[in-house]
Amino acid sequence: MPRKKPFSNKQKKKQLQVKRERKRGDTGSGPSSRNASVERGGERQSDTSDSETTDIRRINQQPFSRESRFDPNRFRLHFEKESKEEVEKRKKLAMEKLLQPVSDKELEVSIDDIYPSEKGLGFPRRPPWNYEMTRENLLRKEEKSFREYLDDLLSRNPPGSLSHFEHNLETWRQFWRVLEMSDVILLIVDIRHPVLQFPPGLYHHITGDLQKRVVLVLNKADLCPPPQVIAWKHYMTSQFPHLHIVCFTSHPGQPYSTVLQKKRVRRKADLSHAGGIDILKACQEITAGRVDLSSWEQKIHRDAVAERLEGERADEGAESVLVEHQCDSAMEMSSPSQELYKDGVLTLGCIGFPNVGKSSIINSLVGRKVVSVSRTPGHTKYFQTYYLTPTVKLCDCPGLVFPSLVNKQLQILAGIYPVSQLQEPYSSVGYLCERTPFLSVLKLKHPSLLENEAKHSNKGSEELDWTAWHVCECKMNHSDTKRLM
């Protein structure tokens, strides 16, 4: 048998690229034909390479198929692109700036610090419309309104002051539809930093302009100690007295390591229905008997019993769930003043930032996996609805990043910005090290100690000056050493 020739990753990547272009029906190959094939509706859909000439960075781009009417590129994340000069400046700063511990006073952050009202940090609203408008006129009106919103926002704030936020109009359109068609809004946040993901302008718009109720779901409660959970509930209640607050976790009473281990071993996720009771009680209080939620309560108890009986409920024996994939016509025909609890059905809209666990909560409420879950922000691309019971409907919305003044490094550490698209990790690492005892956790040796042990024999790593560059280099060398051992 002849010996195989070496096949590099670069060759494999090029082979897959040619295969995708052939599948799309492109006659040519290379970047020119690829760029020509993804032009749609007069808008050029470029990739995330450094050669991109626009000022918007497009994340999670998917190959576009001409045979399918659905274009996955339409819902990819759009963030402002940083220039090469800014990236190089941060790299240089990471090599020179010494890490200094941040005081407890500097760690205190309020909602007003992240979303100051005087900065005009709202969110784009859907312009007024009616059924007499044509589809083309409605789309043009939305585009004009969105463009005016961006121009006003950027004129009020200097360049670089705003954090990463969503620039994709298609994603905002889905968000508008979810707000219009939902009776109760489930605003889902990560309990480890809820003020980062709770825009006050959104709350006031839902409760004031739309006259609807909001249930704040503090997700991932198992990752925080109970005193911290109580403190966050007290803080949010003091800021928003009429807000319904619910703590939720998909893995109650289990340490984080045990949860990860079970995820690797079990074929399907270990779903919990403990938080569903609290959400049900909040919805019962809001609806005040106008919707029959007894079927939902029976389902929660039935699923809890089946979960305790290990292995008795197989996947094929689970209840069927009606899934509605929303098309463009369905998204555009939602009424701007929709009747609440129409036909006796309660519609719950699940909204929130990327990576807060919206899909996991929907899976837990349904009792089985109906939504794909990923650690990558922006995994959910388009909204769809699920009938939990004949009188309760869930509506899943893609994660949206609202404009704010939060530090971009904190956004990255919180999982809002995809790590795979990060151009330099040093500033984020430095931000984290200044707020944690990184030396005792990572157990690193300073590079100067490794280079000249005799010169610094009387000093420890704690006494030497550290930079973010040192931490990254030492961690990488430490990982390589462990791999060789």
Automatic annotation (TrEMBL):
Matching entries from CDD domains are given as:
HSR1_MMR1
Per UniProt, the ranges with Basic residues bias are: 1-22
Answer yes or no on keyword GTP-binding.
yes
Which GO MF terms does the UniProt record name?
GTP binding; GTPase activity
Q: What InterPro entries would the database entry show? A: G_CP_dom, GNL1-like, GTP-bd, P-loop_NTPase
Region annotated Disordered, chain positions = 1-72
Per its record, how is this protein called by name?
Guanine nucleotide-binding protein-like 1
Q: Name one Pfam family in it.
A: MMR_HSR1
Domain CP-type G stretches: 172-403
Purpose: Possible regulatory or functional link with the histocompatibility cluster.
Which UniProt keywords are present, listed alphabetically? GTP-binding, Nucleotide-binding, Phosphoprotein
